[in-house]
Design brief:
Length: about 290
């Protein structure tokens, strides 16, 4: 048995009532029936069912494909199509609305139930994934480190607010641009060449970090220079295939300035490596979440 709710969109009343009876006998809560696309969109907005059974061909100006597109985009409610029209052109148009399944008329009760169960499971997994992504995005955007993520070509896919502040670039303006242009690094001192940790991590498919004794300078968009420490690590999928690189970095300017002042008083004092500071910060975030 199930407690999932369904809205049926079907302009043939006999078919609609038969579907309602069959679904109710299986424990589904049928919230209502619509015979047109216009009525379906209005009622689905009001009742927000868990899933919609949508006939493709409907009476009125709005067909089932148009109605399904609105439901999908506006409400993110999964739609399963009912149709007697399985021609390629109709199905190609229906695919654009990303349906969760098709039921071809005349249908069997077992086909309807199995398609609904699969669609509801898929929708549940997608909802959990979106929730997980929101948690991760919130954590990344609120951390004290600058974060830049790239694809396998080193092109920017994401920047958090700290990275925007330190580099001087707006995330929307740099999506798809080379990270090496946004994250401009040099070693302090004359005759040094630019550093490119993103492309190094991509080429080696391994993690790398700045050395605690190095004085690495980040040059922002407006020319401002800051000392930073960084860690660059490859992102891989479940099959160990490279997906890109994530770069974490922190402004060390104030800390280095203070250390230089302290060294004048206490010779030989050493700084805490950036990678240890980053680990402490990540551990703190983990405990707080």
């Amino acid at each position: 048995m199930t407690d999932n709710s369904v809205w049926i969109v079907e302009d043939e009343s006999i078919v609609a009532m038969d579907l309602k009876s069959r679904l109710q006998s299986r424990g589904y809560d049928v919230l209502g029936i619509s015979g047109s696309g216009e009525d379906a969109v209005e009622k689905i907005r009001q009742h927000k069912p868990d899933i919609v059974l949508m006939d493709i061909v409907l009476k009125g100006e709005m067909d089932g494909i148009t109605a399904a597109g609105i439901v999908r985009e506006e409400l993110r409610i999964p739609v399963v199509y009912l149709t007697a029209y399985a021609d390629t052109q109709t199905l190609d148009r229906a695919k654009q609305t990303e349906p969760y399944g098709y039921i071809i008329k005349p249908f069997k009760e077992s086909d309807v139930i199995s398609t609904l169960e699969v669609a509801l499971y898929k929708a549940s997994m997608e909802r959990k994934l979106r929730e997980s992504e929101r948690w991760i995005q919130t954590m990344i955007r609120s951390t004290g480190e600058g974060i830049i993520a790239t694809d396998t070509k080193g092109l920017v896919k994401f920047m958090n607010p700290v990275a925007e502040n330190l580099t001087g670039y707006d995330e929307k303006a740099v999506i798809g641009k080379p990270a090496s242009e946004i994250f401009s690094l040099t070693m302090e001192g004359p005759g040094t060449s630019p550093l490119d940790p993103v492309n190094r991590a991509l080429a080696n498919e391994g993690s790398l970090s700045s050395d605690e004794d190095e004085r690495i300078v980040l040059i922002a968009k407006d020319g401002t220079k800051r000392y930073i420490g960084y860690i660059a690590a490859p992102i891989k999928d479940d099959r160990k295939q490279l997906m890109g690189v994530v770069l974490a970095f922190r402004d060390l300017t104030e800390r280095i300035r203070i250390e230089e002042m302290v060294k004048r008083v206490v010779p030989g004092i050493r700084a805490t490596p950036f990678r240890d500071l980053l680990k402490e910060e990540m551990d703190r975030l983990g405990h707080s979440s």
